[in-house]
Amino acid sequence: MIQDLLYLERVEQAETLLKPHRIEVLRQLAEPRSCTEVAARLDQTQQRVYYHVKRLVEHGIVTQVAERRVRGINEGVYQATARAYWLSPRLVGRIGQRQHRDEASLGYLLDLMEEVQSDVAALHSRAAQPVGAPELPSLGVSGEIRVRPDRRAEFMADLKTALQDLFTKYGGAEGDGFKLAVACYPDRTHDNAG
């Protein structure tokens, strides 16, 4: 069964995946296919595709899901192990010391996103439990807010107050622990004034 996410934390996995031909092979293996089928789709030799598939299997990026006999030869059928592959920021590691940054800086936001990515990947691997196990409670919300330049400071203050109110209300020592991360940044997909 294909997972939603495979979090790559080993350099060998990243090196194996990050080759243009292998990525194309991996895309073809979103559905179960043999090396012969993938080779035909990519207009490559079966031997070349098999070489890439073998490397992907070695590092858990692809799995053999079946085997069939074709003209007297056993042929493997392979499939990607996940729908998405995330590279851990720890593959490179932190270069230099973590700097103390203002929570309104983009550097702070980058650090926060690395932490969220790592936490979500860990939760996802933990959530891969038997069928019927309860879903882990989580919430993702995304939206767009438009703020005039002269009201940006007011908006940021209101957002900070709303979050502080939540932390105060639910910040007790009892109950299940949840992390809350809020990212607010300029939307560059639209033309922003100022």
From TrEMBL:
CDD domains given in the database record: HTH_ARSR
Domain HTH arsR-type: 12-100
Lineage of the organism: Bacteria, Bacillati, Actinomycetota, Actinomycetes, Micromonosporales
GO molecular function, a single term: DNA-binding transcription factor activity
Name recorded for this polypeptide: HTH arsR-type domain-containing protein
Superkingdom of origin: Bacteria
Cited SMART domains: HTH_ARSR (SM00418)
Gene3D superfamilies in the record: Winged helix-like DNA-binding domain superfamily/Winged helix DNA-binding domain
Species: Dactylosporangium siamense
Cited InterPro entries: ArsR-like_HTH, HTH_ArsR_DNA-bd_dom, WH-like_DNA-bd_sf, WH_DNA-bd_sf
